[in-house]
Structure formats: structure tokens, C-alpha cells
């Protein structure tokens, strides 16, 4: 099977990109669209992301007051430390300190580092999330819906993970260890949520020696459920490998490039059964774009044969859209 380089993106595709509205699954690129359209799309995306962040932050605060406080759980990260410090002040010092005070102070340094390393808009949306979440935790009253600690840990963790994933997919973080995970992910190009989970487990076990292992173990269940939901819903640093056999290699390549900003390699060969010439494209893309890419390829070429699977690791240059 002979390997040949794929032809460069045609000028007509560049003109087409300037005329079309770009969805969230496509890459916003000043080089492939007009300056004015780029800024309009950027503003629209920023507004949408900010609205999602605000809503998710309020729901996160409700989850803290309904599930976490109901079971006296320690959710880990800045949220867990803030709740722990609040509990210490109330129990031993007999003073009531707002959750928001501890939360904002604990997130100040990570936010500053994130501002320098990740991006300005990303950090500002994260700060918005932290402020809304912190104030909402103080303002929204606690409400107990069950006294079953296992149900609290499982469902509270699932809801926690879903909300954090929504915030992450809106180009922000909920603060604390999320800042750390994003900084490491940006540097290494990998998902580190399982490592964050193990770090939280270590902290929870230490806290369990002080406050009781029963609460610590249920808190670990909460963290595990939350981490699994994040891994399931947040795919920025996951990668999929695509092998596509098609009669329209140029059109398929244009779809891959337009939707993901990733390149592809073209192989030409012969199908063994019918002895027909075949074109096969090989590409590695971000997992969150795989579904859209496959749908568009099947629209363009219904007879295309597509084999895709998760890529455990790659070595070499791989494009990630920079956070702003």
C-alpha cells in the first residue's frame, strides 16, 4: 500500500468557510474566515459559555447544600477545604465564617497562576464561577432529602461531576484542584482527573483519621462518582484515531480539517475482494469532535467505511485549540 501526502486545503474551501456560520464543534480561526465574522462568533460563544457557567455554578451550590452538607461529606479540593475550615471555626472557635470567604481566598493563588499559564478569558470565567458558586452556597438554605449516606454519596457525586463537566466544557473551571488539573493538562496534553482523584483520596483518608473514617469513605465514593462523570463528559484531552475508506478523499479530508483543524494522511491501495482502487484517510482527532466528524462524513459519502477507536497515547505534534 503506497503512502502519499494529501493535497493542501483548496482555496474554494477557504472561501466557503468565510461564508458559513461555524458551530461550537468547529475551530474558530481568523485565517479561514473574515475578521468581523470571527469576532461575532467569538462574542456569541463567550456569552453562551458565561450563561452556562452561571447556571451550573448555582446548581453546584444547591448540590453542596442538598447532598454534601446533608451527609457531612468532604468533597475534596477547595470546596472540601472551605467546608472543613468553616466546620472548624463553627465547632472549635464558635464563630460563623461565610463559606465564600474561604473559597475565594483559597482560589486566589491558583487563579493567578492560571491567568498566566492558561488564558485571560478562561480565568475570568472561572473567577465568575467561583464568585457565583461561593455566594450561592451562603445564600441558598440547606435542604435534606434523604438520610441515606450511600445515596447521598452516589447521587451527589454524579451531579457534582456533571456540573463540573458542564463548566469545563464552557471553557472555565470550578476552582481549586480544577485549576491545577487544567494547568497540568495544558503542559502535558493529557487528562489528569484520575490523578486528582487519587490526591483527594489521600487527603480524605488523613481527614478521616481526625473526623472519622465513616465520613471519609463515603466522601471517597462521592469523589469517585464525580470523577467518572467528568471523565465521561469532558473529552478535551482524549483522542480518537480514524481510518476512513472512501471514494471522496478530498471532501472527507476537508471535513476533518474544517471541523477539527487536524491534518490527515492519505493511503492509496486496492480492495482485495473486488480488486478496486481504494483511498484510506488516517487521522487523530479530539474525542469531543469525533461524533460530528463521522456524521458529516456519512452525509458526504454514505458508503464510507469508518473505523474509529480511542488513542491511548501519541508521540509527536498534536493540535489543541488554545484557551483564551
From TrEMBL:
The keyword Nucleotide-binding does not apply. The chain crosses the membrane at residues 50-71, 91-115, 127-145, 151-171, 192-213. It is found in: Cell membrane. It is a multi-pass membrane protein. Its main location: membrane. GO terms for cellular component: plasma membrane. The keyword Cell membrane applies. It holds the Pfam family YitT_membrane. Residues 263-313 form the DUF2179 domain. Keywords: Cell membrane, Membrane, Transmembrane, Transmembrane helix. It comes from the Bacteria. PANTHER family: UPF0750 MEMBRANE PROTEIN YITT, UPF0750 MEMBRANE PROTEIN YITT-RELATED. This is Uncharacterized BCR, YitT family COG1284.
Amino acid at each position: 500500500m503506497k503512502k502519499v501526502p494529501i493535497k493542501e486545503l483548496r482555496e474554494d474551501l477557504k472561501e466557503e468557510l468565510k461564508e458559513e456560520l461555524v458551530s461550537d464543534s468547529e475551530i474558530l480561526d481568523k485565517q479561514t474566515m473574515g475578521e468581523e465574522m470571527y469576532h461575532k462568533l467569538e462574542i456569541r460563544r463567550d456569552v453562551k459559555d458565561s450563561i452556562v457557567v452561571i447556571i451550573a455554578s448555582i446548581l453546584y451550590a444547591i448540590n453542596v447544600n442538598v447532598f454534601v452538607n446533608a451527609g457531612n461529606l468532604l468533597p475534596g479540593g477547595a470546596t472540601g477545604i472551605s467546608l472543613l475550615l468553616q466546620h472548624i471555626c463553627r465547632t472549635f472557635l464558635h464563630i460563623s465564617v461565610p463559606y465564600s470567604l474561604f473559597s475565594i481566598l483559597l482560589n486566589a493563588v491558583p487563579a493567578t497562576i492560571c491567568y498566566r499559564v492558561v488564558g485571560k478569558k478562561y480565568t475570568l470565567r472561572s473567577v465568575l464561577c467561583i464568585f457565583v458558586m461561593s455566594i450561592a452556597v451562603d445564600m441558598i438554605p440547606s435542604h435534606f432529602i434523604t438520610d441515606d449516606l450511600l445515596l447521598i454519596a452516589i447521587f451527589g457525586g454524579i451531579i457534582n461531576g456533571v456540573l463540573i463537566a458542564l463548566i469545563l466544557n464552557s471553557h472555565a473551571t470550578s476552582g481549586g484542584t480544577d485549576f491545577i488539573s487544567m494547568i497540568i493538562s495544558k503542559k502535558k496534553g493529557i487528562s489528569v482527573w484520575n490523578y486528582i482523584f487519587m490526591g483527594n483520596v489521600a487527603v480524605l483518608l488523613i481527614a478521616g483519621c481526625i473526623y472519622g473514617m465513616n465520613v471519609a469513605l463515603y466522601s471517597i465514593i462521592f469523589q469517585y462518582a464525580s470523577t467518572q462523570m467528568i471523565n465521561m463528559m469532558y473529552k478535551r484531552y482524549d483522542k480518537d484515531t480514524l481510518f476512513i475508506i472512501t471514494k471522496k478523499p478530498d471532501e472527507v479530508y476537508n471535513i476533518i480539517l474544517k471541523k477539527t483543524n487536524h491534518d490527515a494522511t492519505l493511503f492509496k491501495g486496492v480492495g482485495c475482494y473486488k480488486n478496486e482502487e481504494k483511498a484510506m484517510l488516517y487521522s487523530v482527532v479530539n474525542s469531543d469532535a469525533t461524533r460530528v466528524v463521522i456524521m458529516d462524513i456519512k452525509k458526504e459519502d454514505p458508503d464510507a467505511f469508518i473505523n474509529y477507536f480511542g488513542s491511548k497515547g501519541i508521540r509527536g505534534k498534536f493540535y489543541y485549540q488554545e484557551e483564551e
